[in-house]
Amino acid sequence: MSKQQANWSPYDNNGGSCVAIAGADYCVVAADTRMSTGYSILTRDYSKICKLADKCFLASSGFQADVRALQKNLAAKHLSYQHQHNKQMSCPAMAQLLSNTLYYKRFFPYYAFNVLGGLDSEGKGCVFTYDAVGSYEKVGYSAQGSGSTLIMPVLDKRLQSPSPLLLPSQDAVTPLSEEEAIDLVKTVFVAATERDIHTGDSVEIVVLNADGIRREHVELRKD
Amino acid sequence: MSSVELNQPKNSLSEIQRTQYPYVTGTSVVALKYKDGILMASDMGASYGSTLRYKSVERIKPIGKHSLLGATGELSDFQELLRYLDELILYDNMWDDGNSLGPKEVHNYLTRIMYNRRNKFNPLWNSLILGGVKNGQKYLGTVNMIGVHYEDDHVATGFGNHLARPILREEWHKDLSFEDGVKILEKCMRVLLYRDRSAVNKLQIAKITEEGVTISQPYALKTFWGFNAFQNPTAAAEGSW
Predict the structure, then answer these.
(1) Which backbone phi and psi does B166 adopt, to 5 degrees?
(2) A192-210: buried (b, 16+ CB within 10 Å) or exposed (e) per residue?
(3) Per-residue pLDDT tens for A108-153?
(4) Domain A17-35+42-219: which CATH number of 3.40.50.150, 3.60.20.10, 3.10.180.10, 3.30.540.10
(5) To probe the interface with A, which of B20, B21, B111 has the most A CB atoms within 10 Å?
(6) Which listed residue, A135, A179, A207, B31, has the most CB atoms within 10 A of its CB?
(7) CA gap A222, A202 in Å, rounded
Protein backbone atom coordinates (compact mmCIF):
# COMPACT_ATOMS: atom_id res chain seq x y z
CA MET A 1 0.00 0.00 0.00
CA SER A 2 1.42 3.36 -0.91
CA LYS A 3 1.70 6.14 1.60
CA GLN A 4 -1.23 8.58 1.41
CA GLN A 5 -0.48 11.17 4.06
CA ALA A 6 2.11 13.90 3.94
CA ASN A 7 5.04 13.23 6.23
CA TRP A 8 4.09 13.68 9.88
CA SER A 9 5.07 16.92 11.57
CA PRO A 10 5.13 17.47 15.32
CA TYR A 11 4.22 21.14 14.80
CA ASP A 12 1.21 23.10 13.61
CA ASN A 13 0.53 26.83 13.51
CA ASN A 14 -2.77 27.67 15.13
CA GLY A 15 -2.47 31.38 14.35
CA GLY A 16 -3.64 34.39 16.30
CA SER A 17 -2.22 37.78 17.24
CA CYS A 18 -0.99 39.14 20.57
CA VAL A 19 -0.37 42.77 21.53
CA ALA A 20 0.84 44.46 24.71
CA ILE A 21 1.33 48.14 25.50
CA ALA A 22 3.01 49.56 28.60
CA GLY A 23 2.11 52.97 30.01
CA ALA A 24 3.41 54.94 32.96
CA ASP A 25 0.86 53.47 35.38
CA TYR A 26 -0.90 50.75 33.37
CA CYS A 27 -0.35 47.83 31.00
CA VAL A 28 -2.67 46.49 28.31
CA VAL A 29 -2.36 42.87 27.13
CA ALA A 30 -4.58 41.68 24.28
CA ALA A 31 -5.06 38.71 21.97
CA ASP A 32 -7.75 37.51 19.60
CA THR A 33 -9.70 34.34 20.44
CA ARG A 34 -9.66 32.50 17.12
CA MET A 35 -7.87 29.17 16.87
CA SER A 36 -7.27 27.84 13.37
CA THR A 37 -5.29 25.25 11.44
CA GLY A 38 -4.48 25.93 7.80
CA TYR A 39 -7.60 27.42 6.24
CA SER A 40 -9.95 25.89 8.86
CA ILE A 41 -11.22 27.50 12.04
CA LEU A 42 -11.12 25.10 15.00
CA THR A 43 -12.89 27.32 17.52
CA ARG A 44 -13.89 30.98 17.80
CA ASP A 45 -13.54 31.28 21.56
CA TYR A 46 -10.11 30.19 22.77
CA SER A 47 -8.24 32.48 25.17
CA LYS A 48 -4.55 33.00 24.37
CA ILE A 49 -3.98 35.05 27.52
CA CYS A 50 -2.69 33.39 30.67
CA LYS A 51 -2.34 34.91 34.12
CA LEU A 52 1.10 33.94 35.38
CA ALA A 53 1.21 36.06 38.54
CA ASP A 54 -0.85 38.79 40.22
CA LYS A 55 0.61 41.51 37.99
CA CYS A 56 1.87 39.48 35.05
CA PHE A 57 -0.02 38.26 31.98
CA LEU A 58 1.29 36.21 29.07
CA ALA A 59 -0.26 36.32 25.60
CA SER A 60 0.96 33.58 23.25
CA SER A 61 0.24 32.40 19.73
CA GLY A 62 1.82 29.69 17.61
CA PHE A 63 1.33 25.96 18.24
CA GLN A 64 -1.47 25.61 20.79
CA ALA A 65 -0.24 22.34 22.34
CA ASP A 66 3.22 23.82 22.95
CA VAL A 67 1.69 27.04 24.28
CA ARG A 68 -0.40 25.08 26.78
CA ALA A 69 2.64 23.02 27.83
CA LEU A 70 4.61 26.24 28.31
CA GLN A 71 1.83 27.81 30.40
CA LYS A 72 1.61 24.71 32.62
CA ASN A 73 5.40 24.65 32.99
CA LEU A 74 5.51 28.31 34.05
CA ALA A 75 2.54 27.86 36.40
CA ALA A 76 4.33 24.95 38.12
CA LYS A 77 7.56 26.95 38.46
CA HIS A 78 5.66 29.93 39.81
CA LEU A 79 3.93 27.75 42.39
CA SER A 80 7.27 26.46 43.65
CA TYR A 81 8.58 30.07 43.68
CA GLN A 82 5.63 31.08 45.88
CA HIS A 83 6.34 28.22 48.29
CA GLN A 84 10.03 29.17 48.50
CA HIS A 85 9.70 32.94 48.72
CA ASN A 86 6.18 33.49 50.04
CA LYS A 87 5.42 36.13 47.41
CA GLN A 88 4.30 36.55 43.81
CA MET A 89 7.01 36.65 41.18
CA SER A 90 7.69 40.13 39.75
CA CYS A 91 7.14 40.77 36.08
CA PRO A 92 10.84 41.22 35.18
CA ALA A 93 11.67 37.99 37.05
CA MET A 94 8.93 36.15 35.18
CA ALA A 95 10.35 37.58 31.95
CA GLN A 96 13.77 36.04 32.65
CA LEU A 97 12.13 32.75 33.69
CA LEU A 98 10.19 32.61 30.44
CA SER A 99 13.37 33.22 28.44
CA ASN A 100 15.19 30.42 30.27
CA THR A 101 12.21 28.09 29.90
CA LEU A 102 12.11 28.67 26.14
CA TYR A 103 15.88 28.31 25.72
CA TYR A 104 15.86 25.07 27.73
CA LYS A 105 14.10 23.59 24.73
CA ARG A 106 16.43 25.23 22.19
CA PHE A 107 16.86 22.07 20.13
CA PHE A 108 13.18 20.99 20.15
CA PRO A 109 11.60 24.39 20.66
CA TYR A 110 8.22 25.38 21.94
CA TYR A 111 6.69 26.86 18.79
CA ALA A 112 5.27 29.78 20.76
CA PHE A 113 5.40 33.52 20.15
CA ASN A 114 5.00 35.39 23.39
CA VAL A 115 4.36 38.85 24.71
CA LEU A 116 4.57 39.26 28.45
CA GLY A 117 2.92 42.31 29.98
CA GLY A 118 2.48 43.50 33.53
CA LEU A 119 3.42 46.00 36.19
CA ASP A 120 6.87 46.19 37.75
CA SER A 121 7.50 46.64 41.49
CA GLU A 122 6.88 50.43 41.16
CA GLY A 123 3.55 49.86 39.42
CA LYS A 124 4.95 51.00 36.06
CA GLY A 125 3.83 49.14 32.93
CA CYS A 126 6.35 46.76 31.37
CA VAL A 127 6.27 44.64 28.22
CA PHE A 128 8.68 41.89 27.18
CA THR A 129 8.71 40.38 23.72
CA TYR A 130 10.19 37.01 22.71
CA ASP A 131 11.13 34.71 19.88
CA ALA A 132 10.44 30.96 20.04
CA VAL A 133 13.87 30.06 21.49
CA GLY A 134 13.99 32.66 24.25
CA SER A 135 15.65 35.84 22.94
CA TYR A 136 13.86 38.63 24.70
CA GLU A 137 13.81 42.35 25.04
CA LYS A 138 12.07 44.86 27.31
CA VAL A 139 10.02 47.22 25.16
CA GLY A 140 7.23 49.77 25.50
CA TYR A 141 4.87 47.89 23.23
CA SER A 142 4.92 44.80 21.03
CA ALA A 143 2.92 42.56 18.71
CA GLN A 144 3.46 38.85 18.06
CA GLY A 145 1.76 36.15 16.03
CA SER A 146 0.17 35.83 12.61
CA GLY A 147 -1.03 39.45 12.43
CA SER A 148 2.11 41.01 13.92
CA THR A 149 3.42 42.16 10.52
CA LEU A 150 0.24 44.20 10.07
CA ILE A 151 0.02 45.51 13.64
CA MET A 152 3.63 46.35 14.51
CA PRO A 153 4.17 49.18 11.97
CA VAL A 154 0.93 50.84 13.10
CA LEU A 155 2.09 50.75 16.72
CA ASP A 156 5.52 52.09 15.65
CA LYS A 157 3.96 55.05 13.88
CA ARG A 158 1.39 55.83 16.58
CA LEU A 159 3.60 55.39 19.63
CA GLN A 160 6.84 56.99 18.30
CA SER A 161 8.86 55.32 21.00
CA PRO A 162 12.48 56.54 21.51
CA SER A 163 15.11 54.50 19.66
CA PRO A 164 16.61 51.65 21.71
CA LEU A 165 20.01 52.81 20.37
CA LEU A 166 19.92 56.09 22.32
CA LEU A 167 22.50 56.60 25.04
CA PRO A 168 21.74 56.91 27.87
CA SER A 169 18.82 54.57 27.17
CA GLN A 170 15.42 56.20 27.39
CA ASP A 171 12.35 54.78 29.00
CA ALA A 172 10.16 53.00 26.47
CA VAL A 173 6.75 53.39 28.15
CA THR A 174 4.21 54.98 25.85
CA PRO A 175 2.93 58.54 26.32
CA LEU A 176 -0.70 57.47 25.73
CA SER A 177 -3.36 57.49 28.42
CA GLU A 178 -4.94 54.17 29.39
CA GLU A 179 -8.12 54.89 27.38
CA GLU A 180 -6.11 55.87 24.29
CA ALA A 181 -4.02 52.70 24.55
CA ILE A 182 -7.14 50.49 24.80
CA ASP A 183 -8.65 52.28 21.80
CA LEU A 184 -5.44 51.75 19.84
CA VAL A 185 -5.48 48.04 20.67
CA LYS A 186 -9.08 47.73 19.42
CA THR A 187 -8.15 49.59 16.23
CA VAL A 188 -5.15 47.41 15.39
CA PHE A 189 -7.12 44.21 15.96
CA VAL A 190 -9.97 45.38 13.73
CA ALA A 191 -7.36 46.30 11.10
CA ALA A 192 -5.45 43.00 11.38
CA THR A 193 -8.71 41.05 11.15
CA GLU A 194 -9.41 42.62 7.76
CA ARG A 195 -6.26 41.19 6.17
CA ASP A 196 -5.08 38.26 8.32
CA ILE A 197 -7.27 35.16 8.00
CA HIS A 198 -5.92 33.67 11.24
CA THR A 199 -6.97 36.66 13.34
CA GLY A 200 -10.60 37.39 14.18
CA ASP A 201 -13.80 36.33 16.00
CA SER A 202 -13.14 38.47 19.09
CA VAL A 203 -10.38 40.19 21.01
CA GLU A 204 -9.76 39.73 24.71
CA ILE A 205 -8.19 42.75 26.41
CA VAL A 206 -6.66 42.67 29.89
CA VAL A 207 -5.91 46.01 31.55
CA LEU A 208 -3.65 46.15 34.61
CA ASN A 209 -3.34 49.29 36.74
CA ALA A 210 -3.19 50.42 40.37
CA ASP A 211 -6.89 49.57 40.82
CA GLY A 212 -6.35 45.95 39.77
CA ILE A 213 -7.26 43.93 36.70
CA ARG A 214 -10.04 44.63 34.22
CA ARG A 215 -11.09 42.49 31.26
CA GLU A 216 -12.84 43.55 28.04
CA HIS A 217 -14.19 41.56 25.11
CA VAL A 218 -14.76 43.10 21.70
CA GLU A 219 -16.33 41.22 18.77
CA LEU A 220 -14.39 41.05 15.51
CA ARG A 221 -15.24 39.84 12.00
CA LYS A 222 -15.99 36.13 11.92
CA ASP A 223 -15.09 35.46 8.26
CA MET B 1 11.81 2.47 0.30
CA SER B 2 9.33 3.30 3.02
CA SER B 3 9.76 6.41 5.09
CA VAL B 4 9.81 4.30 8.25
CA GLU B 5 13.46 3.43 7.58
CA LEU B 6 14.42 6.80 6.14
CA ASN B 7 13.19 8.90 9.00
CA GLN B 8 14.59 7.00 11.94
CA PRO B 9 16.76 9.12 14.20
CA LYS B 10 20.25 7.68 14.55
CA ASN B 11 20.29 6.86 18.25
CA SER B 12 19.65 4.02 20.65
CA LEU B 13 15.92 4.23 19.97
CA SER B 14 16.40 3.71 16.24
CA GLU B 15 15.22 0.07 16.42
CA ILE B 16 11.81 1.04 17.81
CA GLN B 17 8.98 0.92 15.29
CA ARG B 18 6.95 4.10 15.17
CA THR B 19 3.64 4.97 13.55
CA GLN B 20 4.61 7.46 10.85
CA TYR B 21 1.46 6.87 8.85
CA PRO B 22 -1.82 5.11 9.61
CA TYR B 23 -3.00 1.72 8.29
CA VAL B 24 -6.65 1.14 9.24
CA THR B 25 -8.49 4.39 9.72
CA GLY B 26 -11.93 5.59 10.68
CA THR B 27 -13.36 8.85 9.34
CA SER B 28 -15.25 11.76 10.95
CA VAL B 29 -16.95 11.94 14.35
CA VAL B 30 -19.45 14.74 15.02
CA ALA B 31 -20.74 15.77 18.45
CA LEU B 32 -22.81 18.55 20.01
CA LYS B 33 -24.14 19.75 23.33
CA TYR B 34 -27.92 19.67 23.74
CA LYS B 35 -30.42 20.47 26.49
CA ASP B 36 -29.70 17.43 28.69
CA GLY B 37 -26.16 16.46 27.69
CA ILE B 38 -24.07 15.44 24.71
CA LEU B 39 -24.92 13.72 21.45
CA MET B 40 -22.22 12.10 19.31
CA ALA B 41 -22.41 10.47 15.90
CA SER B 42 -19.98 8.43 13.81
CA ASP B 43 -20.24 5.93 11.01
CA MET B 44 -18.92 2.37 11.41
CA GLY B 45 -16.54 2.15 8.49
CA ALA B 46 -12.80 1.55 8.71
CA SER B 47 -10.56 1.91 5.67
CA TYR B 48 -7.32 0.13 4.78
CA GLY B 49 -5.87 2.91 2.66
CA SER B 50 -8.70 3.55 0.20
CA THR B 51 -10.25 0.09 0.62
CA LEU B 52 -13.35 0.00 2.84
CA ARG B 53 -12.01 -2.88 4.90
CA TYR B 54 -14.35 -3.08 7.93
CA LYS B 55 -17.97 -1.98 8.03
CA SER B 56 -19.05 -2.67 11.59
CA VAL B 57 -16.53 -0.96 13.83
CA GLU B 58 -17.72 0.86 16.94
CA ARG B 59 -15.81 4.11 17.11
CA ILE B 60 -17.77 5.58 20.02
CA LYS B 61 -17.12 4.06 23.45
CA PRO B 62 -18.22 4.93 26.98
CA ILE B 63 -15.36 5.82 29.40
CA GLY B 64 -16.20 5.40 33.08
CA LYS B 65 -19.60 6.61 34.23
CA HIS B 66 -19.65 10.16 32.88
CA SER B 67 -17.83 10.20 29.53
CA LEU B 68 -18.13 9.23 25.90
CA LEU B 69 -15.14 8.93 23.56
CA GLY B 70 -15.27 9.08 19.77
CA ALA B 71 -12.23 8.47 17.58
CA THR B 72 -11.05 9.25 14.05
CA GLY B 73 -7.85 7.80 12.63
CA GLU B 74 -5.78 4.68 13.27
CA LEU B 75 -8.01 2.04 14.87
CA SER B 76 -5.23 0.10 16.58
CA ASP B 77 -4.05 3.28 18.29
CA PHE B 78 -7.63 3.91 19.42
CA GLN B 79 -7.80 0.42 20.89
CA GLU B 80 -4.51 0.96 22.72
CA LEU B 81 -5.92 4.21 24.09
CA LEU B 82 -9.00 2.35 25.32
CA ARG B 83 -6.69 0.00 27.23
CA TYR B 84 -4.96 3.00 28.89
CA LEU B 85 -8.35 4.44 29.83
CA ASP B 86 -9.64 1.10 31.17
CA GLU B 87 -6.60 0.94 33.44
CA LEU B 88 -7.05 4.58 34.48
CA ILE B 89 -10.70 4.07 35.39
CA LEU B 90 -9.94 0.75 37.13
CA TYR B 91 -7.17 2.21 39.31
CA ASP B 92 -9.36 5.19 40.12
CA ASN B 93 -12.16 2.81 41.14
CA MET B 94 -9.83 0.85 43.41
CA TRP B 95 -9.55 3.82 45.78
CA ASP B 96 -13.21 3.06 46.55
CA ASP B 97 -13.68 6.60 47.86
CA GLY B 98 -16.87 7.35 45.97
CA ASN B 99 -15.00 9.72 43.64
CA SER B 100 -14.94 9.15 39.92
CA LEU B 101 -13.23 10.78 36.95
CA GLY B 102 -15.44 13.20 35.04
CA PRO B 103 -15.21 14.15 31.35
CA LYS B 104 -12.94 17.12 32.12
CA GLU B 105 -10.40 14.88 33.85
CA VAL B 106 -10.53 12.23 31.12
CA HIS B 107 -10.10 14.86 28.41
CA ASN B 108 -7.13 16.34 30.24
CA TYR B 109 -5.60 12.86 30.53
CA LEU B 110 -6.08 12.25 26.79
CA THR B 111 -4.52 15.62 26.05
CA ARG B 112 -1.41 14.75 28.03
CA ILE B 113 -1.14 11.26 26.45
CA MET B 114 -1.39 12.66 22.92
CA TYR B 115 1.08 15.50 23.53
CA ASN B 116 3.52 13.22 25.35
CA ARG B 117 3.51 10.76 22.45
CA ARG B 118 4.10 13.54 19.91
CA ASN B 119 7.07 14.72 22.02
CA LYS B 120 8.52 11.20 21.61
CA PHE B 121 7.93 11.40 17.85
CA ASN B 122 5.69 8.36 18.28
CA PRO B 123 2.16 9.75 17.93
CA LEU B 124 -1.13 8.03 18.44
CA TRP B 125 -2.63 8.66 14.99
CA ASN B 126 -6.08 9.87 16.08
CA SER B 127 -8.37 12.83 16.49
CA LEU B 128 -10.50 12.30 19.56
CA ILE B 129 -13.75 13.76 20.81
CA LEU B 130 -14.57 13.52 24.50
CA GLY B 131 -18.05 14.38 25.70
CA GLY B 132 -19.75 13.95 29.04
CA VAL B 133 -21.90 15.24 31.86
CA LYS B 134 -21.01 15.37 35.55
CA ASN B 135 -22.66 17.33 38.38
CA GLY B 136 -24.98 19.02 35.89
CA GLN B 137 -21.99 20.30 33.90
CA LYS B 138 -21.86 19.43 30.19
CA TYR B 139 -18.42 18.98 28.67
CA LEU B 140 -17.37 18.60 25.06
CA GLY B 141 -13.77 18.70 23.94
CA THR B 142 -11.40 17.40 21.33
CA VAL B 143 -7.71 16.60 20.97
CA ASN B 144 -5.66 15.59 17.94
CA MET B 145 -2.50 13.55 17.40
CA ILE B 146 -0.07 16.41 18.10
CA GLY B 147 -1.90 17.50 21.25
CA VAL B 148 -3.92 20.48 19.98
CA HIS B 149 -7.06 20.60 22.08
CA TYR B 150 -10.10 22.79 22.79
CA GLU B 151 -13.66 22.80 24.09
CA ASP B 152 -16.70 24.00 22.17
CA ASP B 153 -20.48 23.64 21.98
CA HIS B 154 -20.07 21.44 18.92
CA VAL B 155 -17.00 19.71 17.54
CA ALA B 156 -16.12 17.47 14.60
CA THR B 157 -12.99 15.64 13.47
CA GLY B 158 -11.45 15.28 10.02
CA PHE B 159 -13.83 15.98 7.13
CA GLY B 160 -16.45 16.86 9.73
CA ASN B 161 -14.62 20.09 10.48
CA HIS B 162 -15.05 21.11 6.85
CA LEU B 163 -18.52 19.76 6.08
CA ALA B 164 -20.41 19.36 9.36
CA ARG B 165 -19.32 22.36 11.41
CA PRO B 166 -20.71 24.98 9.02
CA ILE B 167 -24.10 23.24 9.43
CA LEU B 168 -23.67 23.16 13.21
CA ARG B 169 -22.73 26.86 13.30
CA GLU B 170 -25.94 27.66 11.39
CA GLU B 171 -28.34 25.45 13.29
CA TRP B 172 -26.97 24.85 16.79
CA HIS B 173 -28.48 26.59 19.80
CA LYS B 174 -27.99 25.79 23.45
CA ASP B 175 -31.42 24.41 24.33
CA LEU B 176 -31.71 21.90 21.50
CA SER B 177 -34.08 19.03 22.28
CA PHE B 178 -32.89 15.44 21.89
CA GLU B 179 -34.98 15.02 18.71
CA ASP B 180 -33.65 18.23 17.12
CA GLY B 181 -30.09 17.32 18.09
CA VAL B 182 -30.40 13.93 16.41
CA LYS B 183 -31.92 15.62 13.34
CA ILE B 184 -28.94 17.98 13.02
CA LEU B 185 -26.44 15.15 13.52
CA GLU B 186 -28.21 13.06 10.86
CA LYS B 187 -28.07 16.02 8.48
CA CYS B 188 -24.31 16.30 9.12
CA MET B 189 -23.78 12.57 8.68
CA ARG B 190 -25.79 12.58 5.44
CA VAL B 191 -23.64 15.39 3.97
CA LEU B 192 -20.53 13.48 5.02
CA LEU B 193 -21.90 10.30 3.49
CA TYR B 194 -22.45 12.06 0.16
CA ARG B 195 -19.13 13.88 0.03
CA ASP B 196 -16.62 11.89 2.13
CA ARG B 197 -15.64 8.83 0.10
CA SER B 198 -14.54 6.86 3.17
CA ALA B 199 -17.86 7.29 4.99
CA VAL B 200 -20.28 4.35 4.97
CA ASN B 201 -24.05 4.31 5.43
CA LYS B 202 -24.08 2.59 8.78
CA LEU B 203 -23.85 4.80 11.82
CA GLN B 204 -24.40 5.02 15.55
CA ILE B 205 -25.61 7.98 17.57
CA ALA B 206 -24.64 8.04 21.23
CA LYS B 207 -26.22 10.04 24.01
CA ILE B 208 -24.79 10.89 27.42
CA THR B 209 -26.75 12.66 30.16
CA GLU B 210 -26.68 12.76 33.96
CA GLU B 211 -28.54 9.40 33.78
CA GLY B 212 -25.78 7.69 31.80
CA VAL B 213 -24.74 6.50 28.35
CA THR B 214 -26.95 5.13 25.57
CA ILE B 215 -25.42 4.10 22.25
CA SER B 216 -27.89 3.41 19.47
CA GLN B 217 -28.02 0.23 17.43
CA PRO B 218 -26.36 0.70 14.02
CA TYR B 219 -28.70 2.09 11.38
CA ALA B 220 -28.64 3.57 7.89
CA LEU B 221 -29.72 6.99 6.62
CA LYS B 222 -32.21 7.47 3.77
CA THR B 223 -30.30 8.75 0.76
CA PHE B 224 -31.30 9.95 -2.70
CA TRP B 225 -28.80 9.54 -5.50
CA GLY B 226 -31.21 10.55 -8.28
CA PHE B 227 -30.05 14.18 -8.45
CA ASN B 228 -29.27 15.24 -12.00
CA ALA B 229 -25.81 16.32 -10.99
CA PHE B 230 -25.09 12.83 -9.65
CA GLN B 231 -26.47 10.98 -12.71
CA ASN B 232 -24.83 13.20 -15.29
CA PRO B 233 -21.99 14.93 -13.49
CA THR B 234 -20.42 16.52 -16.59
CA ALA B 235 -23.63 18.04 -17.94
CA ALA B 236 -22.62 21.50 -16.80
CA ALA B 237 -19.03 21.17 -18.03
CA GLU B 238 -19.07 19.54 -21.46
CA GLY B 239 -15.70 19.52 -23.13
CA SER B 240 -14.18 18.23 -26.35
CA TRP B 241 -13.68 14.78 -24.79
Answers:
(1) -60, -40
(2) bbeebebbbbbbbbbbbbe
(3) 999 999 999 999 999 999 999 999 999 999 999 999 999 999 999 9
(4) 3.60.20.10
(5) B21
(6) B31
(7) 8
Q: How far apart are CA A48 and CA A145, in angstroms?
A: 11
Architecture of the CATH domain B23-218: 4-Layer Sandwich (3.60)
Residues in chain A: 223
* Angle subtended by helix axes A178-195 and A148-159, to nearest 10: 150
Cα separation, B146 vs B121, whole angstroms: 9
Question: ∠ CA A190-A195-A197 to the nearest 5 degrees?
Answer: 95
**Each residue of B103-136: pLDDT tens digit?**
999 999 999 999 999 999 999 999 999 999 999 9
Q: Which of A3, A35, A108 sits opposite B150 (nearest CB)?
A: A35
| Domain assignments of chain B as residue spans, ordered by start | 23-218
Residue B226: how many CA atoms within 13 Å on its side-chain side? 2
In this model, does residue B9 exceed pLDDT 60? no
Helix (H) or strand (E) holding B83: helix B75-94
Instruction: Pick the closest to residue A144 from A14, A13, A20, A11 (CA basis).
Output: A20
Contact assignment for B3 to A7 by CB distance below 8 Å:
yes
**Domain limits of chain A?**
17-35+42-219
Residue B10 region, left (φ>0) first, then alpha (ψ -120 to 50), else beta?
beta
Q: Which of A2, A7, A43 to mutate to test the interface with B (most CBs of B within 10 A)?
A: A43
Report the distance separating Cα A15 and Cα B189, nearest Å.
29
- What is the Cα–Cα distance from B113 to A59, expressed in whole angstroms? 25
> What residues in B contact A9, CB-CB < 8 Å?
146
Active site residue B19: yes
What was the pLDDT predicted at B2?
Answer: 47
ipTM score assigned to the predicted complex: 0.93
Could you tell me which residues come within 8 angstroms of residue B25 by beta carbon, excluding any fewer than 6 positions away?
B46, B47, B72, B73, B74, B75, B125, B198
Strand, helix or coil for residue A158: helix
Average pLDDT over residues B38-55: 97
